[in-house]
Design brief:
This protein is α/β, with parallel strands linked by helices and 259 residues long. The protein has a single domain, classed as Spore Coat Polysaccharide Biosynthesis Protein SpsA, Chain A (Alpha-Beta Complex), CATH 3.90.550. 45% of the residues lie in helices and 19% in strands. It contains eleven helices and eight strands. The protein has an eight-stranded mixed sheet with strand order 3-2-1-4-7-6-8-5, sandwiched between helices. Helix 7 crosses helix 8 and helix 10 runs antiparallel to helix 11. The protein is globular.
């Protein structure tokens, strides 16, 4: 089995080395084709990437944004299992082996839990992670339509499923992962792995941390677009969930650390 892992990157020199090391540290009975797709960073990113010449592949050129970079990376990598990890997130030890076991067991896509961390890798917002884990344990397509609880850094999928569902929608800037999960869900039920596979970093400058309301709004619009006529109730629940999350995250921002 081979993993095709993509990291879209732009001016994340402060974190990208941790991302790279978390990929290279994975051990097990699999191969990894790892590609960093950089959008022409002007910070220290390129000097970090150069230190890993021969251990990873990378390209650095202007692109049309994160979704374009991810799609480009999928086209440029090999591997029957693919995923992307953003340049400020990390994988946890043993993640790839756990995924390999699930895929060999017949899963076409799978996801696990995700630890939320701050800039110093300290665990934060544990109640948010536990809440999403609770939703994941009762997975259904209707539940997924009502809440975006599948964590992107902890999600892996077969390349043939991606080819069947189609590429990431490049018109989306925040909820492109959620849109892809909903398309996957129409084709196959995921395997949920009851363990942490990755760390998702939240800080004020991060796209999700700094613009949560925009991301939540885009996810709501994705749910509306992907829902079928008999699933409007799930979308209504998504709206209520959206309103609640905006309120919670506004309070977290108000009281800063949220630890």
């Amino acid at each position: 089995m081979k993993f095709g892992i993509v990291t879209p990157s732009f001016n994340q020199g402060a974190f990208i080395e941790r991302t790279i090391e978390s990929v290279l540290a994975q051990q097990g009975d699999f191969e990894v084709d790892y590609l960093v797709v950089d959008g022409g960073s002007t910070d220290e990113t390129l000097s970090v990437l150069e230190r890993y010449t021969g251990r990873i592949r990378y390209v650095s050129e202007r692109d049309r944004g994160q979704s374009d970079a991810i799609n480009k990376g999928f086209r440029m990598t090999q591997g029957d299992v693919v995923a992307w990890i953003n340049s400020d997130d990390t994988y946890l030890p043993g993640a790839f082996q756990a995924v390999a076991d699930a895929i060999r067991g017949g899963a076409r896509w799978c996801f696990g839990d995700c630890r939320i961390v701050d800039e110093q890798d300290a665990r934060i917002r544990g109640f948010v992670a536990r809440y999403k884990s609770g939703l994941a344990r009762g997975y259904s397509l209707r539940r997924l339509l009502s809440s975006n609880f599948v964590p992107q850094p902890s999600t892996f999928f077969r390349r043939d499923l991606l080819e069947e569902a189609g590429p990431i929608d490049e018109s989306l800037h925040y909820a492109m992962d959620y849109d892809l999960w909903l398309r996957f869900a129409r084709l196959a039920e995921p395997a949920y792995l009851t363990r942490e596979l990755a760390c998702f970093r939240v800080y004020q400058r991060s796209k999700t941390g700094g613009a949560f309301q925009k991301g939540a709004r885009e996810a709501l619009e994705v749910a509306r677009r992907r829902a079928q006529p008999g699933e409007r109730g799930a979308v209504a629940r998504h709206f209520l969930h959206y309103a609640g999350l905006v309120a919670v995250y506004s309070l977290l921002d108000l009281f800063s650390s949220g630890r």
